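SEVERITY: medium
COMPONENT: batch folding queue
REPORTER: lab tech (J.R.)

DESCRIPTION
The queue accepted two submissions in a row. Attaching both inputs and their returned structure tokens so the on-call engineer can compare them side by side.

ATTACHMENT 1
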Amino acid sequence: MPTVAGPRVHWVSVLTVVFLAVFVLAVLALVAADLWFTNVEAMQKVLASEEVRHAVRLSLLTSVCTLVLVVVFAIPVGYALSRYRFPGSVVLDAVVDLPIVMPPVILGVSLLVFFRTPVGRWIESVEWMRFVYTVKGIVLCQFFLTASLGIRASKAAFDAADQRLERLALTLGCTHGQAFWRVAVPMARGGLAAGAVMAWARAVGVFGPLLIFVGAVPMKTAVMPTVVYLEVSIGHIEPALAVAMLLLAMAMVALVLLHWLAVGRRRWWAS
């Protein structure tokens, strides 16, 4: 890497590092406040609660199911957006990104309204396809809020993959399906994995639409974020913080894994 002429310390470097330090300290201050307000005994007491353990299990179960759905959709959709050009592709890109900018509460309202339409009522009339106020509804909310992140990460990964290798595979006798699975997907696997981690972390923290679409019934549809809300609503700050710290720990693990994947599997502490 060529050296940069001029002093290493100048007003731009000082100013940007100061802003970086202020932001990092602000985030760490929030985490430190949470740690100061709770303790190990409170964490153990909360995690011993059957309602909390049910919420943790339900959060993990629904987020993993959502992750599978996101991967199933993100890989082909991201590939199509990356490789094909057709009229209206800009509009399709905007529609795919819409759930990212849509307020989560609006998504919950939209889902509830949809299932009051004739089509939605027909779906609800089928026993195994009921979504409103059910566990399947949790997965549906999580999917709509996270799929766009997975698709966008998938598209970026395929954009970065060398298309010439796919064309070379076709000239060597591979079918389009073989070129996709044996060349394109392996080249994009780092970005695809990072998108999957990001989608899972987002799914675990979904809150707004769940209150509207599936409710927050303990031992039925209450997941970790809704448990935090329920505890705070009745003034139980310590139990809410204990669950929040568990969510924070899960998010931190996901972020470490995400950054590890982003730097090409180099040691994350040296990056």
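ATTACHMENT 2
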Amino acid sequence: MKRTMRDSTTGTVLEVSSLVRRFGEKVAKAAGDMPVLDVACGSGRNAIFLRQLGCTVICMDNDLSRLHTDTAFKSASGSLIPHQIDLIKDLWPFMPRSVGGIINIHFTLLTLFPLFQSSLMPNGYLLLETVPGVGGNYLELPKAGELMTALGNAFECEVYKERQVGPPEHNAVTVKLLARRLE
């Protein structure tokens, strides 16, 4: 299974998220025949990895231009489905219990959590990693405990790691989590 791929437009080597590499198989197995959402998919690096695990992946982003130029993406027609959406402004297009898994790497928006909860089928996984805590990123990161609270009683966390970043008075944390949707 490829851990890296090269963007055919820029020549940049794209590394699959270590969190997706570690838990992708678990997400894929739980999803079964249901699609997996790659929220804010960017280049599609994680979606292509999940496709290699047998998933149909809906690649969501406000700019899909990088997906359409990549050879690996084009060769996976049918199992990688592009969906252009502004996750801040547009309405959420997925019905309750209509997706088998959700990955959300390096784009965290708390207002999406109730939508994730609704759309994810029971026993499906949410795999999330915030942006790393470098430079001024701490300004866009959640506060300690905020994502755990956002999951509410609808999820059971199998992995939840917070790391304090930035000035202590901001109480900002990076988070990596794997949570299973309860019945």
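NOTES FROM REPORTER
The two ends are 32 Å apart (CA to CA).
No errors were logged for either attachment.
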